Amino acid sequence: EPMAFISSILYIIILLNTIAAIITVFREPREIAATWGWLIVLVMLPVIGFIIYFFFGRRIRKKRIFNLRAQETVGLQELVEQQQRDLAYTKEKIGPAKFRFKNPYQEELASFFLEADDAIITENNDVEIFVDGQEKFDRLKEDIKNAKHHIHLLYYIFNQDEIGEEIMQLLIDKAQQGVEVLVIYDALGSRMTRNSFWNKLHEAGGQSVAFFGYTLGFINWRINYRNHRKIAVIDGKIGYVGGFNVGDEYLGKGPLGAWRDTHIRIAGDAVYSLQSRFLVDWNAAVIEEKRREFIPEYFPLTETKGENTMQIVSTGPDSDVQKIKFGLVKMILMAKKSVWIQTPYFIPDESIQEALSIAAMSGVDVRIMIPCKPDHPVVYRATEYYSSQLLKSGVKIYVYQKGFLHAKIMVVDGEMATVGTSNFDMRSFRLNFEVNAFVYNEQFAKKVEEEFVNDLKNCTIANEKYFEKQDRWKRFKQKFARLFAPIL
């Protein structure tokens, strides 16, 4: 009968789709949560699920990873090896401490980053903190105008709007003066920016490149792996890193209204690490003829006498070790008094959840601040879900009400802090290319805490009643979003 025939065909399609889904997902090693997430997508959405997987689920080919790692020849390997020897020397109690750490825990964390990421330990850094977009861009524009040798910029989003045009004109002016101008922008993040915008820079003598760009018109095979870093390096002496991209919305002129972010300006030896990171990304993105090699002008001697000991740590899908996440877990478990976090997206994996729960249940003051509104609805519902779950362990959740909170910071015990581009979510830990500054300095940590306390004045406390008041439909969306948390 026709109906029996159609039923048989449907059963066969479902069976073949399920078999194909299992084979597809298990072809490459990945975390169990991500495996189940993709299995649900492929089984629940026959055919369409495979199209989604093709663009978002495939891992970077081993050859491509090898090519990215092969670029790690710019600059600082000898210094890394010397510092590893110095730390081993100190641990054996053979000689005096080589670095200014307040306690052994900070030294352990620095040792981990040195081993896992070749993240050199730098001292004598001056660090300024910005929580307002206008102040950050005014300072950056001033530094660009004063550049003598080179301007290196890497932004996930570089928009062709008022602030984008303003910075572009400054770059064009400097390129015409003979200053080297190199700009990396992410192909997906900057998708609304037209090629003509970059052509103006090229005509002036500057260069730009899209990271993991579009290969066939509007098709991007590596759309799931984004360069989410925000780096600026001026003359090898001044560096910027943090949450602000280049766009009017970061000045509070977008649909989300007022914008609360955190960015830092560094003068000192830590700029070497930002420079090295930029050059590695540049060399990975451009054709061979445009690659940059080590020259002394990229790494000039600095005369800064700042007080901050710090490391610049990078992570991305080109590494099997989730370096920033591991560092965050270690910081949380090292905490004796407090762990304060600000993040726009809070989608932690089990290790982060457990670390936060252990800290809170041990009497540590754990506070997490999230936005009051979504810029990605599904991601925000997952953020709400995970936040509500941690309440049970004694974690305090604060919802920022004065615009959109985009800051990515953590401060521990008022003694050390991290500021960077990595969100507290699985995407930042596993899929995006990210960079964070880890600062081992009490004065800097106190400044970060002060800004956190200021923000508390504009927060609602999200306790159990806060979540219980939400209607059933919203709670269903939170639980549903959580199913896709590993692949968001």
Short description:
By secondary structure, this protein is α/β, with parallel strands linked by helices. Helices cover 44% and strands 19% of the residues. The longest helix has 25 residues, at 2-26.
Describe the structure in your own words.
The structure is a single chain. This protein is an alpha/beta fold and 488 residues long. 44% of the residues lie in helices and 19% in strands. The protein contains 17 helices and 19 strands. The strands form three sheets. A 15-stranded mixed beta sheet has the order 4-3-2-5-6-8-1-9-18-16-15-10-12-13-19, with helices on both faces. Strands 7-14 form a two-stranded parallel sheet. The chain has a two-stranded parallel sheet with strand order 11-17. Helix 2 packs antiparallel against helix 3, helix 6 packs antiparallel against helix 11 and helix 13 packs across helix 17. The longest helix has 25 residues. About 2% of the residues have low confidence.
What is the secondary structure topology, with strand pairs?
Elements: H1 2-26, H2 32-44, H3 48-56, H4 62-70, H5 77-91, H6 104-117, E1 122-130, H7 133-145, E2 150-155, H8 162-176, E3 180-186, H9 195-203, E4 207-211, E5 230-234, E6 238-242, E7 259-260, E8 263-267, H10 270-285, E9 308-315, H11 323-334, E10 338-342, E11 346-347, H12 350-361, E12 365-371, H13 377-390, E13 396-400, E14 404-405, E15 409-412, E16 416-420, E17 424-425, H14 426-431, E18 434-440, H15 442-456, E19 459-461, H16 464-468, H17 472-483
Parallel strand pairs: 2-3, 3-4, 7-14, 10-12, 11-17, 12-13
Antiparallel strand pairs: 1-8, 1-9, 2-5, 5-6, 6-8, 9-18, 10-15, 13-19, 15-16, 16-18
